[in-house]
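Example 3.2
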Amino acid sequence: MIFPDYHLHSSFSSDSSADMADNIKNAKENGITSICITDHYDIDFPVRPDEPEMDFQLDYETYIKYMSELKKKLYPDFDLRIGVEMGLMYDSKEKCSDFVKAHPEFDFIIASIHVVDNLDPYYPEYFSDKSDKEGYMKYFETILDVVKKYNDYNVFGHLDYILRCGKTKADFFDIKDYYDVFHEILKTIIQNGKGIELNTAGLYKGLGFCHPHKDILKIYKELGGEIITVGSDSHDAKHIGYGFDLAKDILLDTGFKYYCTFKGQKEEFHSIS
């Protein structure tokens, strides 16, 4: 099954040089008839002096104008929807909320955590004074703090992103070590009427599984979670739709019968078949 890809990036993201024309072309070649572009916007991202270009800001006006014109040009042969991945930090929640409320043009909003204690776990410094287990727990506790106080999003993205970053990655990951925090995160997300994504980037980022880990996905389903999107987190055209056949198997095996797309930030349920 070819899902619409609901997490991908273009050259509007600091960490991507993907051309939208190439994204669309590759999507079509892989039988994908709809995508939602979700370029990064991380308000107050801690810019490193050695990488000033990695500020994860979004030229919003140009972005919306370009994507809206492209959307009209492609219609009705290709369904392009316009989203954003809001990178949240504990101290930027209010700014993110103000931005989202001021700009209702988005079809879809992913909330995600890329920064904890002013450090992106992508960089080794994050783990310099803590074990992987300690670093992972700090990340998950940050997500819990955020979802308890922030609600201006549709799905929470790559809940266990940090497993890409540790010294041992997921070699010793055991859901029993983090069950309580994930139970509370997912219960809060569901109670707030929000969802999560199945993000296939872990398959090509050295983990061998999707985000979140299947054990986390099971907790979400057991708690009554139904809202779920599927995305590749592609930063280059070649990864659009990556691993979607496996994503289908994972969702069905976990008990999901439907996946979601979004239009005007309203969820649309579709049968997995």
